[in-house]
């Protein structure tokens, strides 16, 4: 076997979802390098523009991107790009998605609708994605079938439950995504 065999494969993954669903938290919890965050304090200027229902304690928002890295096996390194969640920054998304192999769409069951645009985005671009339900306290205990129906997901799109503040939990989501993406590429 040549030495080339141990060079890890760099894979670009997008972490998406609506405003305040936990994208930045996920990239931060799993990254093995100090994550790049581009957050600004939510100010009075956002009142009436940013929908804060359910996330009243939130103080900052991503204005450009989150960036992190995680090695999930000796051969595979994931480069994570977290998107901004607010509508007024959606112009960034096309740029962030270039070359992405797959995506995580995070959802908060209290505000499922905020993640609809993310699902459309990846469906339209044929980028494989998994839906990760972030377990906020006070979230509704939906079954996977209910989430699938509410989000009108294809039967094969994986749904996983997670706590994005927990490194192992976030890592499991990424492993599920890589597995699913590989299956899609192999035409399974
Ligand atoms: N209770 C609880 N709080 C969480 C959880 N995940 C994230 N949070 C908190 O929820 C808030 C939103 O998290 P962020 O990671 O900033 O969300 P985001 O999706 O990056 O937000 P934008 O960039 O503004 O779209 C933060 O205050 C987190 O600490 C969770 O699973 N449970
Ligand atoms: Mg963010």
Plain-language structure description:
With 188 residues, the protein is α/β, with parallel strands linked by helices. The protein has a single domain, classed as 3-Layer(aba) Sandwich (Rossmann fold). Helix 3 links the parallel strand 5 and strand 6. Helix 1 packs across helix 5. The longest helix has 20 residues. It is globular, with a radius of gyration of 16 Å. Guanosine-5'-triphosphate binds next to helix 1 and strand 3.
Domains (count): 1
CATH superfamily label:
P-loop containing nucleotide triphosphate hydrolases
Largest sheet: 7 strands, mixed
CATH topology: Rossmann fold
Number of helices: 5
Please bin the fraction of helical residues.
25-40%
The hetero compounds bound to this protein are: guanosine-5'-triphosphate, magnesium ion
Number of strands: 7
- Poorly predicted runs are none
- End-to-end distance: 28 Å
Structural class by SSE content: alpha/beta
Provide the spatial order of strands within the biggest beta sheet: 2-3-4-1-5-6-7
CA-atom Rg in angstroms: 16 Å
- CATH secondary-structure class: Alpha Beta
How large a portion of the residues is in β-strands, by DSSP E? 25-35%
Going by CATH, the architecture would be 3-Layer(aba) Sandwich
What is the arithmetic mean of pLDDT?
Answer: 91
Order of helices and strands: EHEEEHEHEHEH
Shape: globular
Keywords: GTP-binding, Hydrolase, Nucleotide-binding
Organism: Actinokineospora alba
Protein name: Signal recognition particle receptor subunit beta, a GTPase
Family: Belongs to the GPN-loop GTPase family.
């Amino acid at each position: 076997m040549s030495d080339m065999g141990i060079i890890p494969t760099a894979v670009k993954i997008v972490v998406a979802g609506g405003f305040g669903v936990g994208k930045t938290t996920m990239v931060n919890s799993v990254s093995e390098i100090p994550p790049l965050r581009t957050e600004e304090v939510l100010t009075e200027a956002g009142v009436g523009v940013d929908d804060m229902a359910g996330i009243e304690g939130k103080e900052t928002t991503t204005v450009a991107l989150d960036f992190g890295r995680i090695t999930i096996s000796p051969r595979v390194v994931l480069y994570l790009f977290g998107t901004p969640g607010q509508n007024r920054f959606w112009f960034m998304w096309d740029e962030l998605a270039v070359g992405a192999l797959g995506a995580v769409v995070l959802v908060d069951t209290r505000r499922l609708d905020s993640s609809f645009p993310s699902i459309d985005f990846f469906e339209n671009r044929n980028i494989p994605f998994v839906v990760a339900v972030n377990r906020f306290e006070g979230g509704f205990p939906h079954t996977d079938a209910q989430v699938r129906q509410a989000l009108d997901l294809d039967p094969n799109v994986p749904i996983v439950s997670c706590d994005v503040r927990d490194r192992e939990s976030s890592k499991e989501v990424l492993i599920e995504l890589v597995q699913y993406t590989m299956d899609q590429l192999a035409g399974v």
